[in-house]
Amino acid sequence: MSLVGQVILVHGFPNFWLVWKNQFKALAEAGFHVIAPDLRGYNASSRPSGVKNYSQDCVTRDLLHLVDCCSNDQAVSMVGHDWGGVAVWAVAEICPNKLKKIVTVNSPHFDSLRSHLQRSLCQRLRSWYFVFFQLPVIPEAFLQFNRFWALRRSLRTSSLKSQCEEDINRYVEAYTSSGALTGMINYYRAAHAGYWENVGRTHVSIPVKVIWGVMDRYLDCQLANPPKDLVQDVTVRLLPELSHWPMWDDPELFNRTLLTCLS
Questions:
Q1: What's the predicted TM-score (pTM) here?
Q2: Residues marked as catalytic
Q3: Tens digit of pLDDT for each residue in 127-151?
Q4: I want to staple 79 with a disulfide (CB 3.0 to 4.6 A). Which of 6, 103, 110, 149 is the partner?
């Protein structure tokens, strides 16, 4: 089978590359060269100290280096979920000439999120952890408590299809690495400190595909639609019976949808 393109899969919080494990075979069989990195602060990637090291500039620079390493005669597309989607939005704004298209998965355009948080009490309540994560030390201690009980529970209950214990244990192993929790949480701290202030301010000129699990307990479905004045070439595909992690809930349906978006 000839190679039809390259696709970079970018995970979000509190995952790492493993979140995409059910997509690798389907994408490869469709002719894609697949790359799924760990964002800085996660799993096997480096964990620099200091909130500023998790800024938009730092994270997008990492991804752009990866795009440059992948670039050849084949087009590069990026797929981002949750925080990974925010980073992918940022890359599309900064260097659209390096990408064929982007696909975001339950990851709102930051301008839409800012506006929605201002006017929606429901969304502010859903996003309570944004505020909690601004505290020093306490969030890390909470997430570590009782052998990472809170994170284990989230992995078991926040999607419609509970993760297998083997995968949950792999996540916990990643969380236990020195500095891992702080690195993960520092994305939220960096956003609060204004280090992601520029994302969502620039017109996106390349095609954008949005995949959204409607049963998302963290993000309102209204956030699936990016602002029309900033993102004009957009297609939104709603998956009514899936959650914040549609790639877990129904891999077969999600893979069909993703391949349609990438075609």
A1: 0.95
A2: 82, 188, 244
A3: 999 999 999 999 999 999 999 999 9
A4: 103
